[in-house]
Structure formats: structure tokens, C-alpha cells
Amino acid sequence: MLVGRSRVAALALVGALLVLAGSWSAPAAATPRGHTVSVTSPTPAPPAPRRIVTGWLPYWTTAASLSTLTANAKLFGEVSPFWYGAFWDSAKASTKIVNQTYDVSIPTVVAQVHALGVKIVPTVVDDTRAGQLSTLLSTAAGRTHHVAQLLALVMANGFDGVDLDYENFAFADGEASWNATRPRWDAFIQALATALHAQGKMLTVDIPPMYSDTSGYWVYDYRGIAPWVDRVRIMAYDYSFSSPGPIAPFAWVAQVVAFAVTRIPAGKVQIGVPSYGYDWRTTTTGTCPTLTESGTALPATTSGNLAWARGSKHEFDARWSSWYLTSMLPGMGVHPPDPVWDPVTREKHFTYQITFRGGVRASTGNVVSASCSIARTVWYDDAAAAQARATLVNTYHVSGIAEWTLGGEDLGQWAGLTSYATSIAAVPSVVTATAPALVMAGQSATVTGSVVLHGVPVTGTRVAVRYTETYLHIHRMVPSSRSAIAADRGVEE
Questions:
Q1: Is pLDDT above 90 for 475?
Q2: Is residue 72 part of a domain?
Q3: End position of a domain, from candidates 348, 380, 412
Q4: What's the structural domain count of the chain?
Q5: 460 within 8 A of 450, measured Cβ to Cβ
Q6: pLDDT reported for residue 439
Q7: Do both 57 and 37 map to the same domain?
Q8: Which of 61, 233, 264, 436 pairs with 485 at a CA distance of 20 to 30 A?
Q9: 193 and 123 in one domain?
Q10: What residues pair up with 476 in beta bridges, in sequence order?
């Protein structure tokens, strides 16, 4: 017969342990029936590399570019196919967006990129004539029209946003126009970003560097566009363009990034990285032949090589630098020296000479011997150069690097970039704790645990322990002594 009920309080430590940091323990004590429970966070998988790479996929290297992206997708957040141009439409006195690809299935590429978990943000370049785009953006109606064109492009094709490569302001319009263009650009970026963001889309811009608010290519106004854009890709290359020299000397790139992050939130900044080289002609000595020594026309191969050697500058992809050194130049009779790694600029370079012999027709009509030597200098950014510039990502806490081009890069870069991106990835915190399953009221218990915060053990910090209090109801049965024994064992008859 049931004649009464009493309550015994117990503390269940199975539940949550709120750990601030440290390794810790409470006073030791016996625990009922020796039960303990381990409260441990799941063992984390090795950290995935941080997505620090983006870049441009030219339509003329679509297959190679997609191969690069597919093999290294875990490093990418978004990519920009180089597909569209903003041309002037004379009939409408406005712009029109033109697809410049000729053998690319855009829906197929979009599906492939999305299947990799990467966003696709195609580039639109300014293909208008000098001053035309600035004039269009000078009126609210002109800005509205251009915004509508770009938004329609994004929405119609399932893109994740748009990337603007409007370089004419810097390289065609002239600095005298910048005071007028700058506020027009700011107003346009604000309007475009607002329209894109309303649809859940992103806006990125590609701009040459500024060194202060009034030096460099200040028409692009870092401070003015910073609140509106999602990414600013700073084209930190072509330091040397018309004459031989490093393409992106490391100290200069660091200077460019250091200023950018004072005007743009670092998480929006991406560092433009070149994946190419330049071969400049530096000197020509002697008289280059126009005929063979016997007076016949130069062989087509010799004539072609001579024309190439006399060219002021040639560009080549870093991917083909080995072929350039070991096949192309030797095929022209040149045996270039081994490239030299410059530890200051963090690029490779070398010089070589190519000599041509034959004849020229003198004023007398006779063929006379002639020869010339053409000296050339090469600078290029290989895998080591790309990896060196990537270290600035963590130095300045920026979003990542943007490569021109993907598909032209030195394939040897990817192992190093993956290793670096993994080394700077967020490491999960791990909390482990062991506690008794049940502690009766009035008893003490031992709780032990540890914290590893971002890969580093933490000690000497106070912690808080959360526990739940549970009441066990024990029914007493009388007068049976058997019932009393059963009650002591926590069972009911």
C-alpha cells in the first residue's frame, strides 16, 4: 500500500558544460555506482583551405580555364568569365552589352561552375570610345539605362552578379577628365549595387591602383565605392609595361594593398596577380639582312624569326614559360641562360641575344653581307611569384588574389596555394569534458576537460560549468520489509 513519497535531489552533469577556456577539475569524490560520461565535441576534420583565389576565364581559353577551376575548386569563391563588352550604340546614343564569345555555351559553363560550388560573376569591359561612357554616366537617365542593361544580363543568364572592367576612364579618357568622371562613377556604382543587391546578386570592380586619394588612378575613388561594392580587384601588375622591368615587384604590390585597406574594408579587397611574362626588345646592333648572301629572298622561317625578334614586346602565359625557354627560343637558334629569381621583386628574368646573317642590296645594286644582333629581356611571374603575392592575403587580411588569367597560370602554383590557404583557414575549437553521469545531493564530483582554441591549447582561464538538477521520486511501501528494501534500490512494487 502506498502511504508516502519523498524526494532526493540529484545533479545530472551529463548535459552542457559551458567552457570559456582552460584545463580544470573540481574536488574529487565518489560517484554513485561509478558511472561517468564523456562530453566531447566531435573531432573536427582537417580544415578546408580558405577560398582565397578568384580570377578571369578568357573565352579564348575556356577549356583550359575550366580545367584549372575544376581541379582547384576548393580554393575559389567566385570566378569571372571574360565574356562581354559594353559597346556604344550610335542609333540610341547609349551602350549595348555584346557577347564577345564565339564558341562558348554560356548555359553549359554556368551549370559547370555552379556544380563546383563556385559563383559565376562575368566580366563586362568598356569597349566604348574615349569619353563616351563617362558622358553616359553624367545623367541620372544614362546611369539608370546602363544599370538596367547590366541587371538584365545577370538575371537572364542566372549569373551571381557582374564584374566591371571599365579601364577607359584611366587609359583613354585622360586625367583631365577625372574630376568630372569620379562623382559620375560613384553615383553609378551606388545605383548598380543597390539594384543587384535587391536581387541577391554581387558587384565586383576591376581597377588599377591608387597610392593616395589624389595619386595613382584616383578617378576610381576607393572611398566613394567602398560601401557599395562586394569586391574590389586591384590590378597590381604591369608596373613595367613599355620598357623592360618587373611586372609586379613585390614591394610595390604590398604598397598598393597597404593603402587600399585604409579606404576599403580589407575583406572586400582582392589582389590582382599576373600569370604571364613579357619579352622586350632592348637593343639592335648592326644591319639586319633583307636577303641571303647570294641575293635571294630570305627563307620564310628566317624572315619570320627576324620580324618576331624586331618586335618591341611579346607576351606569353606563365604556363608556357618552360616551352618558351626549352623549345621556342632554341627553335630560333637561341640558347637562353637559366632564368634568375630576383629575391627583391620576387619574379624571374633573363636576357638573350639573337643574331641574323645574310645580305642587303647596296646602292650600287650589289648584294653585300649584313648581320645584326637583337638583345631582348624577359620578366615573368611563375608559380613561386604567385605564391609570394598570396602571402599578402594574410598580412593585410584581404579577401584573396585575382589571377589574370586562369588557364594561363603556372600549374605548379596550385600545391603551394592550397597549402597556404589551408594554413590560414579557420581551425575549429575543440572542447572535451568528462563528468559523472549522476551525483547525489550533498556529494562532490570531479569534472575534467580541456579547450583547444583555433589549434592552440588554452590554460589558466576561468570556466563555468552548467548542470541540470533532477529530482528522483522514491515511493516507500509499508509495512513490508521487502518493500523497504526495494525502495532503497530505487524500484517500485
A1: no
A2: yes
A3: 380
A4: 3
A5: no
A6: 74
A7: no
A8: 436
A9: yes
A10: 4
| Per-residue cell: 287 | 644591319
- pLDDT, tens digit (0-9, with 9 covering 90-100), for 183-217: 999 999 999 999 999 999 999 999 999 999 999 99
In the chain, the percentage of residues whose pLDDT exceeds 70 is 83
pLDDT for 46 equals 75
Which distant-in-sequence residues (6+ apart) come within 8 Å of 11 by Cβ? 438, 439, 441, 445, 467, 468, 469, 470
List C-alpha distances in Å: 330 to 197, 269, 324, 354. 53, 41, 9, 10
Same domain, 29 and 58: no
Higher pLDDT among residues 40 and 389, named by residue: 389
Distance CA 297, CA 273 (A): 44
Q: The C-alpha cell of 319 is what?
A: 604556363
193 and 230 in a single domain? The answer is yes
Under DSSP, the state recorded for 199 is T
Task: State how far the alpha carbon of 445 is from the alpha carbons of 43, 389, 405, in Å.
Answer: 26, 54, 63
Specify whether 263 is located in the same domain as 406. yes
One-letter amino acid for residue 31 of the chain: T
pLDDT tens for each residue of 71-111:
999 999 999 999 999 999 999 999 999 999 989 999 999 99
77 and 176 inside one domain? yes
pLDDT at 36 exceeding the cut of 60: no
Return the C-alpha cell found at 229: 561594392
Q: What is the per-residue DSSP string for 403-450? A: EE-TTSS-TTHHHHHHHHHHHTSPPPPEEEEEEES-EETT-----EEE
CA dist., res. 275 & res. 318, Å (int): 5
Reported as a pLDDT band with limits 50, 70 and 90, residue 468 is low
pLDDT at residue 220 in the model: 98
Same domain, 318 and 392: no
Tell me, what DSSP letter sits at residue 17?
-
In this prediction the pTM is 0.81
Residue 483 lies in a domain: yes
Q: Is 207 exposed, middle or buried (CB count within 10 Å of its CB: 0-12, 13-18, 19+)?
A: buried
* CA dihedral (72, 74, 75, 76) positive or negative: positive
3-state secondary structure of 20: coil
What is the grid cell recorded at 335? 640558347
Let me know if residue 194 belongs to a domain: yes
Neighbours of 430 (CB within 10 A): 17
pLDDT on residue 445:
77
Q: How far apart (Å, rounded) are the C-alpha atoms in residues 315 and 317?
A: 7
Q: Give DSSP secondary structure letters for 239-261.
A: SS-SSSS-SS-HHHHHHHHHHHH
What pLDDT is attached to residue 217? 98
Is 493 a domain residue? no
DSSP secondary structure string, 101-112?
Answer: -SS--HHHHHHH
Beta strands in 186-251 (DSSP E): 202-207, 210-212, 215-216, 231-234
Give residue 391's domain range: 53-275+382-423
- Half-sphere exposure for 101 (CA within 13 Å, toward CB): 19
Spatial contact of 180 and 129, defined as CB atoms under 8 Å apart: no
